[in-house]
Amino acid sequence: MHRAHMTFYTGSAGILARKAQLEPMLGHPLHAFKTNTELAQDDVLVGWGQKANTRQIRQKAHDLGLPYWQLEDGFIGYIGHPARGGKAVSLIAQGKFMNMPVFTGFVV
């Protein structure tokens, strides 16, 4: 499979529920990871914080030799409470991509 850009994949329903807010911050498409997903060398698996499903996707990235990014809310994560429709305004991503450390903040 050949694509012109990297794609982010996650096994987290919570991350996928925030797809519309996260994709502009990440700058690349975000999709559900399934066992039969065809992955490219520059794709990245993502998880949130230190949850159990995060450990699973991190291990899957390791097993497949793909980068893994751990996502977290940024310092000012939302304008308004997320349960009341507040908008995400920042995100922190930690991990490695092409053997280079990634620690960055994204702001919308």
TrEMBL record:
Domain of life assignment: Bacteria
UniProt keyword annotations, A-Z: Plasmid
Protein name: Capsular polysaccharide export system protein KpsC
Phylogenetic classification of the source organism: Bacteria, Pseudomonadati, Pseudomonadota, Gammaproteobacteria, Enterobacterales
